[in-house]
Amino acid sequence: MSARIALVTGSSRGLGRDITETLAETASGVAVHYHQDRDAAGETVRNIERKGTPAIALAADLTFEDEAARLVRETEDRFGRLDILVNNYGPILEKGWTTLTRADWDRILQANLFSAWSCMQAALPGMRRREWGRIINIGYSRVEQLTAFQKILPYAVAKTGLLMLTRSAAVSEAAANITVNMVSPGLLEGGVRPKDPDIPAGRLGRFDDVAHAVRYLASPEAGYITGINLVVAGGWKL
Question: How many other C-beta atoms are found inside a 10 Å radius of the C-beta of residue 5?
Answer without folding.
Answer: 23
